[in-house]
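Lab notebook, page 48
Experiment: co-folding of the full assembly
Goal: obtain a model of how the components sit together before planning crosslinking
Operator: M.T.
Materials (sequences as entered):
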Amino acid sequence: MSQLTKDKAGDGFWGDLANSPSTNEFLKGLWKENPVFVQVLGMCPTLAVTNTAMNGLAMGLATTFVLLMSNILISSLRNVIPKQVRIASYLLIIATFVTMTDYAIQAISVDLSKALGAFISLIVVNCQILGRAEAFASKNTVGKSILDALGMGSGFIIALLCLGTVREILGNGSIFGIPVFPNSFQEWVIMILPPGGFFTLAMWLMLFNYQKQKKAAV
Amino acid sequence: MKETTQTSETSGTKMLLTMTGIGVICALLIVLSFQGTLPRIEQLKAEALEKAIFKVVPGMVSKRTFRMESDGSLTEVSGKEKDARLVYAGYDAEGKLVGVAVEAAGMGFADVIKILYGYDPAKEAVVGFYVLESKETPGLGDKIEKDAAFLANFEALDVALSEDKSKTKNTVVAVKQGKKQNNWEVDGITGATISSRAIGNILGTSTAEMAPVLYKNKDFFEVKKGQ
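Observation: model returned without errors.
Model output:
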């Protein structure tokens, strides 16, 4: 995965594409400003619900949906909302979409809403979403905000998948519920508990920073 | 000085209007999505409960729902009733009562655990168990949902009644893993001590109250079937 995103930000075909201004709005979220690995934002859901790849994916999709919808609404209302009450307005808008997502997930599957539980409501206070509203959507056009939300959302999904996959393989011996190890494999239960989240995140951050340093040195 | 007061006053009205406007839009969106998803959510929950009922009463093929009144008598109801204590009677292909599914709840490690268990009046035993809702720690407390050895406790958990059939002879209680001596004890899980003890307590409290009532009504469940 790191190889793929490296190509996207580097030269060649992906580099040309990345240099055009509109695709740059999308691609920056994947690598250069990845919300988890570079900005280190939204750690609560990142650490809490990535105990399996499926939970990570579902959380990533839910967050992306909220990010996209709130970015669209906030950027289209950016000339109407007075500066003094902007944060309150953003929170109101974000909370609305989170509530809608919560209902949608409950309507999709009982098991999924059981697994994600309280963390869906906590998307409201995911500082990544408020951060994008304040730093981007409130200053840019709707089109650009959509690209920004999709990019940041995809970056978030990739990051949660990276964490969830590693933790599920080691902690449960499976990927997306499909066993990958023989029965004799002793699961590392700690990997699906909170400390495992910190360990895995630390290792991914190490990898990202190592790559970044190597690139800077060249 | 005067000017600034004026600007802040006008923007105050504007602020209020904006917030109200956004509030109205948001409220509309929430109400719409709530109304839109409600039938589906209720249907899914009912399906999940239905599946669980058939799981905790082995051998049942049909179901009837009864509402339990405060005096312990039972009335047959059709469909779901809000805020009522319901028990679900299960029958085999010949219409014979094979067990009754009962909901129970109690405090676990993280939050309230909601369970469903099957009671067989003929065997005077708990014959099935399923966790409907729990927020127990993944990897530790949630073993109460999937640990095979723990679930084996509920294949035939003794809740026999005393001589006068007014209360259970022994109260269901959780013991340490491997320390199970009697049929009414629940063998706990190491690493999920509090959660497994909570299940023992929930079952103990609920069966102490429900087993005598259900036993008393065991013929009533059958009689109604003929009509």
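Interpretation: The longest strand of chain B covers residues 97-107.
Next step: discuss with group before ordering constructs.
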